[in-house]
Amino acid sequence: MKIKELNTYLVRPRWGFVEVITDNGYVGWGEGVLEGHAEAVKACIEEMKPYLIGKDPACIEDIWNTIYRAGFYRGGGVLMSAIAGIDQALWDIKGKVFNAPVYQLMGGKCRDKILVYSWIGGDRPSDVGMAAKEKMDAGFTAIKMNATEELQFIDNYKKIDDVLERVAAIRQACGKYFGIAIDFHGRVHKPMAKILAKKLEEFNPMFLEEPVLCEHMELFPEIAACCNIPIATGERLFSRYDFKRLLQIGGVDIIQPDLSHAGGITEVKKIASMAEAYDVALAPHCPLGPIALSACLQVDATSYNAVIQEQSIGIHYNVGKSVLDYIKNHEDFEFVDGYVNLPKKAGLGIEVNKDLVVEENKEPHAWKNPVWRHKDGSVAEW
Questions:
Q1: 143 lies in the same domain as 95
Q2: CATH number of the CATH domain containing 199
Q3: Are 139 and 264 part of one and the same domain?
């Protein structure tokens, strides 16, 4: 069996799909994209074709190392997202060849299902108490929300009070034990992050996400010392080497590698095992599409330290199309009592609606991050 063809597709709202076809008819799907840089990832995948065409798709480790190491320059969001999409597609093929879910080929499952959470609010959240109650009534046991709008290094305490009021509204609406994950989204710098972390402690959040960016990862122990709240981060790290430095520094309780940014299933499984050795939990980042979600669930199935899974059904980014639009087996992605069952079908466990993918690719999306500015005109972190 040899790789005969590799195709890329850009589909709404902001995703990129990879299709790998073999000479004997097997088809594997992956999701390789970097939000706001989808065309760059697509071009990178095209550049990797010479390393792939004619190769045995079963040799995933060799292919992964070839496209990672043979290019000399390595790492970073674009290259690792391209590798991630290809890697997912190769695992999809392998599972289909052996007629088994991918997790059965990775040592087998250690759980039957995993908790999921739902997003509420938007970039500048409001009315989150009511939104959280709606999610709880729908069966979710946890939500995640953006904490705040843009913040300067030192900012007005009115913005701090606004955050506290929003979280208080959720706690009042949903009760003491409902899970509240609060995403700082890298918008907060150390001085204000320390204040927010300390003041949010009274609401018993499930975790604080990206209280500062990982480019300042040496600050995580200092922020963790300000509160007794688990700290989560990792969506903007792209390899086991990035996570090695994070784990050695400490201060983080939950890592959030993205299966479509951090080298795919092959790399994230290694990252998860590294984290387990540090007694750090795993909660893969996934505000993306169905292929990425399915890849996450394969790793969740085999990682003892996996605790909860992000998913993007209903997220504010999804305009025009949503997660389930691109697959036919909707029933395999039903959320019951806050959990999703592991995929049952062979490979990644998805039946891609290729007709829709091809149609969407005729007018590729051009999603870009919004550009925010502070009142003084300087660029703000989004």
A1: no
A2: 3.20.20.120
A3: yes
Nearest 5°: CA angle at 149, between 133 and 256?
A: 70
Alpha helices, DSSP H, located in 53-181: 60-69, 77-97, 128-137, 157-174
| Catalytic (active-site) positions | 185, 285
pLDDT band at residue 290 using 50, 70 and 90 as cut-offs: very high
> Residue 276 belongs to what H/E stretch?
helix 264-277
Q: Model-level pTM?
A: 0.96
Residue that is last in its domain, among 100, 117, 143: 100
Whether the Cβ atoms of residue 186 and residue 232 lie closer than 8 Å to each other: no
pLDDT digits (tens, 9 = 90+) for 90-113: 999 999 999 999 999 999 999 999
Domain total in the chain:
2
- Residue 130: what are its φ and ψ, rounded to 5°? -65, -40
Split at pLDDT 50, 70, 90, the class of 316 is confident
Name beta bridge partners: 8.
18
The radius of gyration of the chain's CA atoms, rounded to the nearest angstrom, is 20
Specify whether 55 is located in the same domain as 123.
Answer: no
Confidence grade of residue 176 (pLDDT, cut at 50, 70, 90)? very high
Same domain assignment for residues 114 and 262: yes
Domain boundaries, position 45: 3-100
Domain for residue 20, yes or no? yes
Q: Report pLDDT digits (tens) over 351-378.
A: 999 999 999 999 999 999 899 999 999 9
